[in-house]
Amino acid sequence: GVGMGMTAPVSITAFPAEDGSLQQKVKVSLRIPSQFQANPPHPSDESIKIEERQEMTIYSTQFGGYAKEVDYVNYAAKLESALGSEAAYRKDFYFCNGYDPPMKPFDRRNEVWFVKE
User: Fold this and answer.
1) SS3 109
2) Residue 34 in 3-state DSSP?
3) How many Å apart are CA 30 and CA 40, to the nearest integer?
4) Is residue 114 within 8 Å of 16, Cβ to Cβ?
5) Which of 73, 66, 76, 59 has the alpha carbon at shortest distance from 107?
6) Could you report the per-residue pLDDT of 23-70, keeping only the tens digit for each?
7) How many Cα atoms within 13 Å fall on the side-chain side of residue 38?
8) What is the pTM of this model?
């Protein structure tokens, strides 16, 4: 097969439950590097799908450290609070993004994205 190396961000689609916690279903997405986008390699695992993410406008917040589920939930709540009731965005899911390899101990970048409606 073809190796593509680390891509960023690693994007997890999170589905919030009524209480703000995350449901156990998630979707992990990796960006296909530019040189492979026109003709991406075919996955050998049937559970891996290639999708094209449509253009979107997002509301975002950024934070550091090694992000855990509780961090994404807390920052999603902070973003929701900062946006107030005026902003229209999808409430059935949001994106949890990490930009750094696991062995990078400092200056880590994580983001929560809400998709504008």
Assistant:
1) coil
2) helix
3) 12
4) no
5) 66
6) 888 899 999 988 888 988 888 899 989 999 899 999 999 999 999 999
7) 1
8) 0.90
